[in-house]
TrEMBL record:
Binding site for Mg(2+): E64, D80, D83, D234
An individual GO BP term: signal transduction
Species annotation: Candidatus Kaiserbacteria bacterium RIFCSPLOWO2_01_FULL_53_17
Protein origin, superkingdom: Bacteria
One Pfam family here: Inositol_P
Name of the protein described by the UniProt record: Inositol monophosphatase
């Protein structure tokens, strides 16, 4: 079985766990590292995924709900068993399941699979190949033939901002990771105020879903902002966007502000901007840099 197929099988295993528990009451705990939440479903989904992913030659696994990992192989498998835990915990069905590979030789994410348990949609991409969408049927265990996504973008790209465009954003508050302050509450409020008069903001609650929808190329979705990166899995969808014909910019926060970074080097930055045209990506990046 090819690695992309293993990733897809693992994502489906995680999707089944999440789907079975969606809308049900759950307990939550708060992680000290970044203040995000974790539920028993996160851990159950991860266990199901790791059962599929263990033992792939030349790889190690870095999973969100594991205490530690050792990067002792050229390829890392990145696992988020439930992206959008806060949304899940309050009863929303917008969470996704993510598995990806990161190639240390070229320092880029090389494969990415994002699954949506509520619908059975699965987005897949690998370097050098068009991004694809398939639908999984949980009753039969079968899924549809993959179709390429982003193919209609040539007549949907947006060069000018207008108030009917939707920008998907992950947080409306400040965020710290490992003691490092990303955007503060005041900076995030300033960013929202700057965007509110020019575009529509939507917050479904899952970065994986944001990037997958941006990759789909819908005419009303201008792009997405990932401001609270809890781990590299939160931005692996950049590969989906790029392989669907979209555009990305990434930034690392330092003493001199934000510096440009390779969007596919998901281990090395703090903010991801995606868009359906260079003009939209530059517009959104400018808004982030201005705060």
């Amino acid at each position: 079985m090819q690695i992309l197929d293993r990733l897809t099988t693992a994502v489906i295993a995680g999707m089944r766990v999440v789907r079975a528990n969606q809308g049900r009451p759950t307990t939550t705990a708060v992680k000290q590292a970044d203040g995000t939440q974790v539920t028993p479903t996160d851990k159950q989904s991860q266990a199901a995924m790791l059962e599929v992913l263990q033992g792939i030659p030349g790889t190690y696994i870095h999973a969100e709900e594991s205490d530690r990992h050792t990067a002792d192989a050229p390829v890392g498998i990145l696992v988020d068993p439930m992206d959008g835990t806060r949304a899940f915990a309050i009863g929303l069905a917008t969470s996704t399941v993510i598995a990806a590979t990161y190639d240390h030789t070229v320092r880029q994410v090389s494969r990415c699979v994002i699954g949506e348990p509520a619908t059975g949609r699965i987005w897949c991409a690998r370097d050098g190949q068009p991004a694809q969408l398939l639908w999984h049927d949980f009753a039969s265990g079968e899924h549809s033939h993959p179709t390429h996504i982003g193919g209609e973008w040539d007549d949907k790209r947006t060069s000018e901002v207008n108030d009917q465009l939707t920008v998907l954003v992950d947080v409306s508050h400040g965020f710290k990771r490992g003691g490092r302050q990303m955007l503060t509450d005041a900076q995030t409020a300033k960013l929202f105020a700057s965007l509110n008069s020019e575009v529509k903001i939507l917050m479904p609650g899952s970065n994986g879903l944001h990037q997958a929808l941006a990759a789909n190329g819908a005419s009303s979705i201008a792009g997405s902002l990932t401001l609270a990166i809890g781990g590299p899995w939160d931005v692996c969808g950049a590969l989906l966007v790029k392989q669907a014909g979209g555009f990305c910019r990434a930034f690392k926060r330092g003493f001199i502000g934000l510096t440009e970074h390779d969007p596919l080097d998901v281990l090395g930055y703090d903010v991801l901007v995606t868009g359906n045209s260079p003009a939209i990506v530059n517009y959104l990046a400018g808004k982030v840099r201005a705060v």
